[in-house]
Amino acid sequence: MSPDDDPGPPVHGFETDAPLRSIAALSVHTSPLAPLGRGDSGGMNLYVRELSCQIATGGLSVDIFTRRSDPWTPETVELCPGVTVVSVAAGPPTALSKHDLFPLLPAFAAEVARYAARRGIRYDVVHAHYWLSGWVAHLLKHEWETPFVQMFHTTAHRKNAVARPDEQESALRLDIERRLTDLADSLIAANPDERDDLRDLQRTPTEKVCAIPPGVDLDLFRPLDRAACRADLGLSAEEPVILFVGRIDPIKGIDTLFEAMQRLVDTADPIPTLNLVGGETGPDGAPTGSLAGLGDLASEMGLAPRIRFVGSKPQDHLPRWYAAADVVAVPSRYESFGLVAVEAMACGTPVVASRTGGLAHTVEDGVSGLLVSVGDADALAHALGRVLGDPALRERLATGARAAAHRYAWPAVAAAIRHVYQRLANGHRARLCDEEEIFA
Ligand code: UDP
Predict the structure, then answer these.
(1) Sheet-wide strand order for 327-330
(2) Nearest to 19 by CA among 62, 59, 64
(3) Helix, strand, or coil (residue 79)
(4) Which pLDDT score is estimated for 4?
(5) Nearest 5 degrees, angle CA 40-CA 41-CA 47?
(6) How far apart are the C-alpha atoms of 49 and 223, rounded to whole Å?
(7) Could you tell me which residue ranges the Glycosyltransferase subfamily 4-like N-terminal domain spans (predicted)?
(8) d(CA 326, ligand 1 centre) in Å
(9) What is the pLDDT of residue 403?
(10) From the CB of 312, is ligand 1 less than 6 Å away?
């Protein structure tokens, strides 16, 4: 056997080559059925949904367990062929803050175990999303002995580095995340820097941490005719348009974008409009909930006439919003990956993004978009102004963006994850990451 064929050490003293049959995915605090762009629902919800459906096309069945947060959703809902969302009773069947869920995790784990026992299911691998689900996977491991894959979708460690004092993540989350880096059988990081971070957090750094990005639906996100999209959306054909898409959360850096807009109002001619997609709006179209605070801030800053609060939109509406824009701003303080940037790129709309996390890997400065320092409103305004004022630059970046986005096609991403599952299910705890790294 050549060293390249070495399968790595087995875990229990035996290896199998049994095919994968079923996967349990855990998404305790937020459901893949939730509408995107509202509350906590964003990239992770989409990821759980898309990955599961992709994996299931290969003949696997996936059960996604999420906490029941209303009394009416049926216990099981088929998300796509082979994928079932299971609502698990743990605590009251009402929406609860994710900060209140930790004490409910043992009850959640017990209910998941009961569900599997009732149906006689034996899962090959558990895939846990976010630290709360990771703790459930760890509890289930006592019951099932099933290997588990952990994805944090942003660690407290990374978040705290950019959070204001009143936004710091709890000591409990920090502690559990550190323990999970040792307890999990594999960890998936969304970018190579996070992979290194997770290795550093482990007591003994291991090879079980893989950098595998999320995928993007390249059939949905593709170039569309800009004029037609603007007409569809009721936007003027002429106005320069900046677009923001995402959850309304301090980590998204919308405050910096508003400051940059103030600079552009003073300097740009014509003055651009900012379309802000995400958050909740009332029946009259006015911002409500967390978006209302942004509406007030825009008024205080004299920006109200320049910002259109669109509210959250189903994902299949977004290609038109991306295509209608001249440039997409992703001013985040941190992004583990930053799906919005890659979706925009796939639609051929240039991106101006913060140089942080996954964005620093997906956007190549000057080639597939422009990168600016985190929180630097002057630099953001300058970069947005450059793209708006220079059609040749816009065209060049659009071409580079489309080419770059193709690296994140779902089939390659799902194959890399499946490889991890297969290795774990067959008893290996080494050489879990596919040789073919998607990140260059
Ligand atoms: N999204 C959406 N509708 C909205 C706002 C966002 O479908 O109104 C989707 C968007 O297309 C993207 C995801 O939510 O796929 C946000 O992912 P991202 O990685 O940018 O941010 P996260 O939510 O993970 O912080």
Answers:
(1) 307-311, 273-277, 241-245, 327-330, 351-354, 370-372
(2) 59
(3) strand
(4) 47
(5) 130
(6) 24
(7) 42-215
(8) 19
(9) 96
(10) yes
**342 CB less than 6 Å from ligand 1?**
no
Strand partners, 275: 243, 308
Residue 51: helix, strand or coil by DSSP?
A: helix
Summarised one tens digit per residue, pLDDT across range 156-187 is: 998 898 888 888 999 999 999 999 999 999 99
Nearest alpha carbon to residue 26 among 91, 100, 111, 95: 111
* pLDDT of 352 above 70: yes
Binding site membership of 46 for ligand 1 (Cβ less than 6 Å): yes
Given a contact cutoff of 8 angstroms between Cβ atoms, the answer to whether 345 and 404 are in contact is yes
**What is the per-residue pLDDT for 3?**
45
Q: State the distance from the centre of ligand 1 to the C-alpha of 340, rounded, in angstroms.
A: 6
Distance between CA atoms of residues 362 and 399, nearest Å = 14
For the chain, domains (ranges, CATH) are 22-215+409-437 (3.40.50.2000), 226-408 (3.40.50.2000)
Residue 437's pLDDT band (boundaries 50, 70, 90)? low
Single pTM value for the model: 0.92
Cβ 244 vs Cβ 257: under 8 Å: yes
Is the CB of 340 inside a 6 Å radius of any atom of ligand 1? Answer: yes
> What is the rounded CA–CA span in Å between residue 21 and residue 297?
51
